[in-house]
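Please, structure for the following, as tokens.
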Amino acid sequence: HAANATYMDEHLLDKDERQEVLQRLPAFLKEDFFQSHFPPEFSVSPLCFIVGGPGSRSTLHADHLSWTGWNLLLSGTKLWRFYRRSTANDELFAAQRVPQWGLDVHPEGLAANWTSDADLFYYREDAPAPGLLPCALRPRPPSSPAAAAAWAAAAGAAGMAEPSLPPPDVEVVQRPGEMIVFPGDWWHQTYHYTTSVAVCAQYCNQRNLSKVLRHILEWCGAPASSL
């Protein structure tokens, strides 16, 4: 838990191997404007390969471009926690914006994610947790004094001795063969209970195109009211 490792690679699989995975996707995931309509210089990787060791976890973040993400677990067991993005939650997590896309065009990029140094899985208690989970996991506040004070106030109001958070909007345990499809612009973090292998990606289609374009326009300071 304290010493863990995660490996992520968007280029490990060659073109034929990627196609072998992508052609097996449900029909609604196959329409992807990132691959069919976006210029090559603004490409978005079609697939990422992930291996997580026991106790490893992602950062707490919300994705740039506000796409829809998907994750297919091939082996292992993984816990997901999701919080809706809102002004209150952005303040609670002391959100920082980090440019992630279009940096070759502008130093501030054309899109940016939301990231936090809070950790939803920092404290681990190796006793069975509710729902037959292998352990209980508790969060650590962000380093921001204002956010840490907000956590402490929320805990005090709830009669708790330690800084804490409201329950996540969604919490789900993912098992082998299961796919999770989720709104990328929600706050999310994953925890690997065991060594886990997964493939993941994101898509833009008719359903979420306006959200993706609105993200780009708003980050670039352009009016997005017509979308």
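DSSP finds six helices and 13 strands in the chain. The longest strand covers residues 68-75.
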